[in-house]
Amino acid sequence: MSDTHAQTVAYVRESFLEQAPPPERETGPIRWLRVNLFSNWFYAILTLLSIYVVYTLLSDFLPWLFNGVWNASDIRECREILQGATGGCFAVLAERWNQLLFGFSFPSDQYWRIVVAFLLFCIAAAPVLFAAVPRVLFVVTGLFPFVAYYLIWGGTILTPLAVLVGVVAGYFAYRRLVDQSFAMGLLGGVVAGLIVWWLAAFVPQDQPSFLALRPIPSRDLGGFALNLMLGVICVSLSLPFGILLALGRQSRLPIIKWICVVFIEFVRGVPLITLLFVANVVLAYFLPPGSNFDLILRVIIMITMFASAYIAEVIRGGLAALPRGQYEAADSLGLDYTQAMRLIILPQALKISIPGIVNVAVGLFKDTTLVSIISMFDLVGMIRGPILASTEWNGVYWELYGFAALLFFIVCYAISQYSQWLERQLNTEHR
Amino acid sequence: MKKTVLIGALTAGGLAAGMASAASLSDVQSRGTLNCGVSTGLVGFSAPDANGNWQGFDVALCRAVAAAVLGDPNAVEFVPTTGKTRFTSLASGEIDLLARNTTWTFSRDTDLGFEFTGINYYDGQGFMVPTNLGVTSALDLDGATVCVQTGTTTELNLADFFRANNISYEPVPVETNAEGQQQYLAGACDAYTTDASGLAATRAAFENPGDHVILPEIISKEPLGPLVTEGDSDASQWGDIVRWTLNALIAAEELGINSTNVADMASSAGDNPEVNRLLGTEGNLGEMIGLSNDWAVQAISAGGNYGELFERNIGENTPIGLARGLNALWTDGGLLYTPPFR
Amino acid sequence: MSTISEPPRTTFHPAMLINDTRYRGLTFQFVALVLIIVFMAFLGMNLVNNLALAGLNISFDFLGEPANYDINQALIPYSSRSTHLRAAIVGLLNTLLVAFMACITATIIGVFAGVLRLSKNWLVRKLMSVYVEAFRNVPVLIWILMIGTIVQQGPSPRVYLGEDPERGLFLGLFAFTNRGITAPAPVFGPGSLWVVLALVTGIVGAILWRRHVRKTLYASGRLLPNWPIFLILLLPPVIVFLLLGRPIGVDMPDVLANRFNIQGGIELQRPLIALWLALSVYTGAFIAENVRAGILSVSRGQTEAAASLGFRPNRIMNLVILPQALRVIIPPLISQYLNITKNSSLAIAVGYADITATLGGITLNQTGRAIESILLLMLFYLVVSLLISAVMNIYNSSVALKER
Questions:
Q1: A230 lies in some domain
Q2: Is residue B17 assigned to a domain?
Q3: Are B128 and B191 a contacting pair, CB within 8 Å?
Q4: Nearest CA distance, C107 vs chain B (angstrom)
Q5: Pick from B188, B221, B254: which residue ends a domain?
Q6: Which helix (H) or strand (E) covers residue B54, if one does?
Q7: Domain at A371, CATH number
Q8: Which of C48, C65, C68, C69 has the most B C-beta neighbours within 10 Å, making it the best mutation to test the interface with B?
Q9: Checking DSSP bridges between strand B114-116 and strand B222-229, what pairing results, if any?
Q10: Residue A311, by phi and psi: left (phi above 0), alpha (psi -120 to 50) or beta?
């Protein structure tokens, strides 16, 4: 039956047809083009417009990039080699790369110190940034400030060691006393640290050349390394201050609250450049007669002030975003203020605030270029100052600014990608 | 990283302890280096070269002072300053000496509380225009756009000049000489004005210097000189040291002392009593300003006499290519005239 | 019973200042206050001592002295004989001008780029991402310097100044040079006030007509024509203008006045253009991100719900998505406006005479009054910032979600 059945009912097909390919316009690149670029006349116009824009940009940019001169001693030689053709004069980068990266007065045989410090920083930052990294590396993070100080500023290794001993002593004092009360622990820690510092301060003075690296005055720091250093130092310093300010602003004690509010609003209300003017021009008047911080330290103080106000606002956002129940739960457990903050509130609030903090950090790092306006030779300062002023390279703009932009782009883009990744990691909300 | 800064603060505080607001000889000597304020980059006067060493006419003066005071021309810490920051840096004691082609004016000398210790370059403000503009006098610049460095006396002189001649102009403020040059070459301004020395230096760096002409009018007097803070007697002694170091360099040229023969001439007293007094082989001029008697020898051997410094940094054989002009010795028809060493 | 409900009356004990939570707060605050006062006093004493040592004083008298320098762009009459105070005000107005202009264009650019980043067009989307990332990740100072250099690349005015000048002007009206854009300027003669008043009357009339149209529509369902609105708007000023003998004239750019610059007309100068452009595109990239986040924050259900009610796509955007997205967009937008104002302080990098360049730059330099100048400068920015936040907060609360 089954045989005949097929023959009797003619329209029932008994074998599979070959799978036909989808229609031409629904597959492959054509479909992709149609859906993504030409889905209607408006998008078609937009696409054509964009192609035109891209073409114009690239037709100028690519010859400039690939036809560039990498080997010349000054801009006139560049022009001679190019003979009027489009092309960048990248010889300036080839000749001055070390000044752009490290500043002009940093001794060139000591560049390795900054490189090592930078590599160590990457290792030290890893456990903070990525939870998957072995916790052991936190040791590196803890030691990094001391090693970096030793590497960058030089001098005897005893100075950072003495400070390290003081910090460790303070930490142990804190651990012993913190069970009684947090305030006691803190006080004890600080006192112990100060005593050890005071005692230890005599050792480096006695042995100024023990395992000493060549001391480098902070004035000699410059170039992109200065931007990186200012960024790292000021962001790390501003975190604790930012937390304190945020807590102060959320506090129920009116005087403390108002001090914090005034400080935060003042700092956020003025441009960074005015604060740098203060550091450069005015701050000296407010220090005791006879004291004189060097410029980089004054700048660090002001940028840290600036950054902590912004970070305080981010953390305040994090504190406000915590459900009220968390505060109440902490109270109902009978925790006092410091315990509640340390154990319940801050860990959660900080976690929420991390992307915001990273954004502030990126912004701050970009803003470190403003120090060029107050006669410090960071990357932009090097370009606008010594390099463009020199007779050899006066007139080379795009290559230098492009290089500076590229360096900043790489660092900031990496950080912002990290921030987005982190946001996805921390996003425990299910959509 | 936070502790790093604390240490920085401690060490910086430690290093800086005892530094008074007004610089004094003992401060400099106990520190072992001279903090000298210079410009952030003006080729010929003070600019770091490709190797990062500071070079220039103002820099040479700093080195001479360091040599006179500390016996080492390299014991100088150069502090780059902008037009805005230079006076505060000096007032706050961050620098001991400002050698940043600064014009000696009444108010700076009196109201700002500084002391100019002489003139190391007689300058005047001029204009540069493209030749094809057909301008032959600054008075033809009615309605022109003029690039001017902001924060300098040139800005004030420019306003005064155009106002006095009842002609109009449009200023374009620029921050640095390099930017002024960029704007001028791009045609964003018709004329560029700054000190004539700066104009010459800028023009020398052009691709086609012949396409640009420096107008004959010099619209101001710009006596450029080093300055220190005014203050108590210690500070006034410090001012004397800087003043007489500069004078020693000028006198050395006048007396025929240069970097090659100075050691020779200082080895024993010669026939010329003024040379002997200057080089310390006779009398005790050095002690009077708190230095050793061979201070002038040190200062001159640091880089040579005034003429040598001029020729090496900004003279006719350098890219800057300045003639001595007003800066020749008075015996050659210039204005350099040092008080006697007596 | 009463003994239980009443707390035991303890006498006050000094140790309670630290151990008793009721008093501890007071102690902390007192200590903080004392510390702050001591710190301030320390700074103040240092200031007094340092000033005495340097033989200086604090005085604002310099504001009344002639400034002696010229400013290339002044919105109020200014010459080199004007006072430092007036120079500061000129700078202040310039700051406000560029900030205002940049806020508007940055918003427009930002909204466009933000919406286009969510577009279905792959190329446009990628292009906008490149724009946003490039501008967000490079310091604003570098952008200002680069855009300042770009703006310089235009033709110099000499191109327009020549034998046959009319040929050069765009449409016979505009000149684009590397010193700025020149356009015809209106000249207000006597009687022009009446024309302006007539224009105001026209606008008021037009608004009244619109209201009337709506009223009749709601009351009777009759839709009155919309075109009389143009008559009401334009007729009064035109009639008054003609009656009074054309009191408002036009000042055309004059290319023959001298051999350096185009005179006459109104000129948008290069420094302003450069700074305006730089701030706009830089901040536009940030606003684009805010806009994108705002639109994404409106859940898809809203779009679908609106679509199922039969709204057309542009109506969905205007009536459903944007009003909700605005609530998310506006707070960060405010801080972007603040950033524009603050970033405009970098004006001197392109030669724009804002308040940082006049008061905080030239005046500070020429008078040596660093403390006073910087104090005034900070005060100005502080006031502007607080004003912008205040105004924007009011607006923000008006669009905020009305919750019960």
A1: yes
A2: no
A3: yes
A4: 29
A5: B221
A6: strand B54-55
A7: 1.10.3720.10
A8: C69
A9: antiparallel
A10: alpha
Q: CB of C229 within 8 A of CB of C174?
A: no
- Per-residue model confidence as pLDDT tens for chain C (404 residues): 444 555 556 676 766 666 666 777 788 788 888 998 999 999 888 888 888 777 777 888 888 888 888 888 888 888 888 899 999 999 999 999 999 999 999 999 999 899 888 887 888 888 999 999 999 999 999 999 999 888 888 777 776 666 555 556 666 677 777 788 887 877 777 777 888 888 888 889 888 888 888 888 888 877 777 778 888 888 887 888 888 777 777 777 776 666 777 777 778 888 899 999 999 999 999 999 999 988 888 888 888 999 999 988 778 878 888 888 888 888 888 889 989 999 999 998 888 989 998 898 888 888 878 889 999 999 999 999 888 888 877 877 776 665 54
- Unique residue bearing structure tokens 């004691």: B93
How many other C-beta atoms can be found within 10 angstroms of the C-beta atom of residue B154? 21
Task: Evaluate whether residue B104 is within a structural domain.
Answer: yes
> Which residues in chain A are contacts of B173 at CB distance < 8 A?
none
Q: Are residues B88 and B103 in the same domain?
A: yes
CA–CA separation, A86 and C399 (whole Å):
53
Q: Is residue A83 part of a domain?
A: no
Tell me the ipTM for this assembly.
0.86
The verdict on C200 touching A (C-beta cutoff 8 Å) is no
**Domain-embedded: residue B129:** yes
Three-state DSSP at C254 gives strand
Residues of A in contact with C124 (CB under 8 A): 43, 46-47, 50
Whether residue C91 contacts residue C355, with contact meaning beta carbons closer than 8 Å, is answered with yes
Is the CA virtual torsion A144, A149, A154, A158 positive or negative? Answer: negative
Query: Which class for C386: exposed (0-12), middle (13-18), buried (19 or more C-beta within 10 A)?
Result: middle
Asked if residue B1 belongs to a domain, the reply is: no
Residue where a domain stops, chosen among B204, B221, B238:
B221
Q: Does residue B107 share a domain with residue B131?
A: no
Q: Would you state the structure tokens that stand for residue C148, as one six-digit string? A: 């300042």
Residue with token string 């003619």: A10
C-alpha–C-alpha distance, residues A422 and A357, integer Å? 12
Kindly report the CATH number assigned to the domain that includes residue B190.
3.40.190.10
Which residues form the domain of A44?
Answer: 22-66
Residues B134 and B266 in one domain: no
Q: How many domains does chain B have?
A: 2
Whether residue B209 sits in one domain with residue B165: yes
DSSP C70-122: --S--SS---TTSBHHHHHHHHHHHHHHHHHHHHHHHHHHHHHHHHHHT-S-H
Report how far residue C269's alpha carbon sits from residue C94's, in angstroms, rounded to the nearest whole number: 12
Looking at beta carbons, which residues of chain B come within 8 Å of C272?
none
Phi and psi dihedrals of B144, rounded to 5?
-80, 160
Residue type for position A116: V
Do B97 and B169 fall within a single domain? no
| Total domains present in chain A | 2
Which of A146, A219, A291 is nearest residue B3 as measured by Cβ atoms? A146
Q: Do B234 and B153 share a structural domain?
A: no
- Note down the domain range covering B253: 25-120+225-332
A146 part of a folded domain: no
Q: Tell which residue, C2, C89, C56, has the closest CA to residue C355.
A: C89
A82/A80 Cα distance (integer angstroms): 5
CA distance A249 to chain C (A): 13
Concatenated DSSP letters for C186-228? EEE-TTHHHHHHHHHHHHHHHHHHHHHHHHHHHHH-----STH
Same domain as B244, residue B288: yes
Q: C334 CB near a chain A CB, below 8 Å?
A: no
| Residue A140 domain-assigned (yes or no) | no
pTM for the whole structure: 0.85
- Do B234 and B113 fall into the same domain? yes
Separation CA B298–CA B296 (nearest Å):
5
Task: Give the Cα separation of B98 and B121 in Å (integer).
Answer: 14
Amino acid type, A106: F
